[in-house]
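We treat protein structure as text, and this decision shapes the records that our systems exchange. Because each token names a local backbone shape, the row as a whole describes the fold. For reference, a complete record is included directly beneath this paragraph.
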Amino acid sequence: GHMMSQYKTGLLLIHPAVTTTPELVENTKAQAASKKVKFVDQFLINKLNDGSITLENAKYETVHYLTPEAQTDIKFPKKLISVLADSLKPNGSLIGLSDIYKVDALINGFEIINEPDYCWIKMDSSKLNQTVSIPL
């Protein structure tokens, strides 16, 4: 299409095991495209975890985490949740994690949405009451 601006900017994060099933990646890209999401970056989660790649702040409108794990068995580096939060624009979405990380989602300023699809939405911090503090 000539109107690229209609697309949402996405990041595709991939669990290393997914590299053995490339069709899973292709399906995810096709699904995203049907929802007007274009993945401008694609990284392995372990590269992000070990610091060999860094994400730009407020670059993406959506981040997809693609893993072969069951929702209840997801092993995700908790420290990366804040990294992903920073890389999202306000009201951006994070797809692919589960309620296992509910507390981390809330601490990092995400709102958990169940309808129509489960995802986390980064709350627009300019609209939040800035005096909110998290008790230690």
